[in-house]
Structures are given as structure tokens and as C-alpha cells.
Design a protein that fits this description.
Distance between the termini: 42 Å
Shape: globular
Number of helices: 13
Number of strands: 3
Strand order of the largest sheet: 1-2-3
Strand content: under 5%
Radius of gyration: 24 Å
Amino acid sequence: MTTFDLPPTPAAARTATARPAARRDGRDGWTGGAARTGGGRAGAPGAANLRRGGTVAAHRVPRPTSAYPVLLLLVGILCMVGLVMVLSASSIQSLRQYGSPWHFFERQLLWLVLGSGAFALAWRTGAARWRRLAPVAMIGAVGLLMAVLVPGVGVKVAGASRWVGTSSVQIQPSEMAKLGLIFFAADVMDRRADRGDWKYQMMPVVVVLGSLIGLVMLQPDMGTTMVLTCIALAMVFTAGMPGKPLAGILGSGAAMFGVMAIAAPYRVRRLTSFLHPLKDMSNTGWQAAQGLAALGNGRWLGSGLGSSIASWGYLPNAQTDFIFAVIGEELGVVGSVAIVALFAALALVGTRIACRCQDRYSALIVAGVTAWLVSQAVINIGAVVGLLPVTGVPLPFVSFGGSSMVIALFGVGVVAHAARQP
């Protein structure tokens, strides 16, 4: 028996004609870009494609994986540069304090190996496997932040209690709080998607952020407070918070920072010393002034690896918070710009991966990790070059540090898992 294909109806023909345009509109993963929540436009593009726990709807082309090797290359270069620069910046002080120029380098290499293991674990499992542990991670981070404030438990250095552990092994709970906030916020905003208005979807994130900021400021640690705020803002923006409430939260946060700064006179002096570091070189402006001097000594091409004058003890925390100053002195403007370019490329790659994620939860995780690493780099580099106050946050993957390296590489592993999905 012969069969015949019926001609399409006019409605079907119009639908078939419209499909290629829908695919083109959805080339970035989320059709039409980031979705708007209940507080945004009712017909905003992409809103139907970001259902809770679901994947992007049909009409999407296969996603290229070019961002995946670029991400690995960028992070690998930053880690290798960090190893070399930690050795160069710390060898003199290491020899003075421990009798060996390799002390800090060996510890950094150990943390890098452990961080590589954390990266491999996250790379193989992905964010979805860790979703059930989001509340546990958040509770654990809050508990550790409280433990830091307990006398005898928290390790106090230079007037700030930011670490727990022994004299040989210490961890910084605020680093765990960054990752815990990312997983918690992504889980809440994904589960509450398309249910209620923006307040219902995002207010738990704002409340938890306020609690974390309160605990961190008791240490005190203004730098981590700024990073946590950047993470939360990036994630709620990615989730589709309307512009007016977002502007209101930004204004409230700025006012809160101002009140906290005014409440402690020493904090005002430190936050404003970067404007004129030479006026108080013997006190609050010493580190900033020495950092600027190191950058000036480097000129265009630098003095060469191992030739930094600042690392002889003139620059405090040369291998940690101010390692970018040593990079500027030894590698010059060329090396400094290269480091900035690497982080700028990391921001672009992270944004591309977030836009191409197949589900809302993964996209929020990638956006949060990208905002964390890039904002921390901006705050660190901005403090060294004199554009921002000195807050004491490390340069990701480059500065000497244990818990910061391991947790940052774990976060990158989660992003890499999302980037390699077909």
C-alpha cells in the first residue's frame, strides 16, 4: 500500500520556518540570555528555558568545547607563575627564618599538589554531586568562622584572627565561606526559580550573605567581605534580579561599609591611607609605599627574576598579599600586564562557560566561581597599584597560601566539569 506525506498546515509551516531563528537566539545556551525571575518582565527571553533543575529547552546547537582547554591553560600558567614568583619573593626571608631558601616554595608546591587533587575530584564529579552538601558546607563554614573568634582556637596575626589550626598547618575559614556561599546561593535560587517574586527567590541569599559578612568583619577582614559581596551580586544578577532592587542592595551595602569603616577609626585610616601612602610611611602607608616603589623599580622589562630589592625585607608580605609588586619589579610592566591579561581572559572564559551551561544551577555555580576569582584578583592588584585600599586578600593561584590555593582549584574543577559537558 502506497503512503503519501500530507502537506504541512500553514501553522506548522510557520513553526518550521521560525525554528532556525530560535536556534540562533539560543546559541549562548540560555535562549535570549539570562532569564528574568518573577520580579522581572513576564515575557523576558529565556525565562521558559530555565526551569528548576531542568536543562535548556530544545532548539540549541551543540556547544563547542573551546573554552575548556583555554580554562585549563590559563589556570595552569597562573599556578606555574605563582610557584616561580613565590620562590623569588620569599627565598631571602626563608633563608633568614628557616635556614633554607626553599621553605616557602616547598610548601607552596605541596599545596599545589593537594589543590590538583581537589581539582581532579571536582572535575570528575561536578557541581550536581555536591548539591546535597550545600547546606552542610554553609553550616560548616559558619561554624569555622565562629571558631576563629574563640580565644585559644583562632590564630591571631597582626591583630586579625582569621585562621584555625596549629603553628605548622593553618586553614582560613573565610575561603571555605566563599565556596559555601556559591553552592548555597545556586541551590536556593535554582529550587525557587519561577516560584514567587524575586524576594522569595533571593532573600535567603541576602540574609546568609549578611550573616557571613558580620562574622568576617569581627575578625576583621574587609577584603573577604568585599569578595563575598561580589560573589553574591554576580549570582543574583545572573539569576535575573531586577535592576531597581539590585541597585537598592548595592546602595545599602555601600552605606553599611561606610558605617563599619567609621565605627573603627583605625579602619578609616587604613582604608584612606592608599590615597596618600607617603604621608604616613612609618605606619599605615608603609606597605603601600613600598609596593609602589617596587613597581617603579621594575620599569618596562623588570630587573630580572630573583633581583627584587623589595623581597629583602623592605616589603611586608612580599610572597602573599603583595606578590604582584614583586612581579612588577622583576618582570616590569610587560610581566604585570601579562598577569592582568590572564585574569581578564579568565573572566571572559568563565562568562562564556556560564552562558553555555545546560541548566540554571550549573550556570550560577560557574558565575559565582568566576566572580570570586576575578574580583579577588582585582582587589589584590588594585591595592598594590594604589587604586584600592590594602585589605589583605591573596592573588588567586599566585600568592603563597594553602587553603586559598586548594579551595580555588576545587572551584576551578567545578567550572571545568561544566565546560566539558557536551
